[in-house]
Design a protein that fits this description.
Layout lengths: L1 H9 L3 H26 L4 H13 L3 H9 L4 H10 L6 H20 L3 H31 L2 H74 L1
Helix pairs in contact: 2-7, 2-8, 3-4, 3-8, 4-5, 5-6, 5-8, 6-8, 7-8
């Protein structure tokens, strides 16, 4: 622990910027993990099967209550569509599309900042490296003989430590970005697939309800 503290101190003021990026990246990772892995965690197969069963039995109120049990994206989108069943299939489709446009982007929110954080942390480390090398060259060129060794050592320490700490921050951020990006895409694909499945059952149900009215009108 003491060696890490000494390395941080030797890295100079660049290390505080890198530390800030590390805290920013950690905050984004934790927040996105909570949103993707917990808040939107739904047994989609069981949920969809239950909703389909309620639709087939013409029990929309129970389907709405089932959607109210979760704040996840899938139940929110389905609930919006179910609320419009009395207004026709086109209104159901429009409401689902509008709700999806407002909910799905929230699943992708801030994930891209992880990639940016990794890149900026790396670049900040490289900037610290260049600054440290400049300090070292100045020590060789202009400093007194008695101070050259100390300034040269200080500049090289800054150069090496800032690069190392920049990479230490960047690598986990890039790995977390790849993981969260993949999980988010999987979640969005799952939502789209299940919304389409439920919409098809709603479409069949509404068409069947309208068939007797059409036949009676012809008679």
């Amino acid at each position: 622990m003491e060696s890490i503290f000494m390395a941080f101190k030797q890295g100079g003021w660049f290390m505080y910027f890198i530390l800030g990026f590390a805290l920013l990246g950690l905050g984004i990772i934790i927040e996105r993990m909570i949103v993707i892995m917990f808040k939107n965690r739904v047994d989609s197969v069981g949920f969809v099967n239950q909703i389909v069963e309620y639709i087939q039995s013409d029990n929309i109120d129970s389907a709405l209550r089932l959607c109210d049990r979760s704040k996840a994206a899938l139940p929110q989108i389905i609930r919006t569509g179910l609320e419009q069943t009395d207004l026709g299939l086109q209104e159901v489709q429009n409401s689902i599309e509008l709700k999806a446009m407002s909910v799905i982007p929230k699943l992708e929110k801030r994930t891209g900042y992880l990639s940016m954080t990794a890149n900026v942390a790396t670049l900040t480390g490289l900037l610290g490296t260049i600054w440290g090398l400049i300090t070292s060259f100045q020590a060789v060129a202009f400093a007194d003989v008695s101070q050259k060794a100390s300034l040269l050592s200080s500049g090289i320490s800054m150069a090496m430590n800032t690069t190392a700490f920049g990479l230490i921050v960047a690598i986990p951020c890039m790995m977390a970005f790849a993981f969260l990006h993949e999980r988010t895409n999987d979640l969005i694909d799952d939502i789209n697939e299940n919304v389409a499945r439920i919409f098809k059952f709603l479409e069949r149900k509404l068409k069947k309800q309208n068939e007797p009215q059409t036949n009676n009108w012809k008679k």
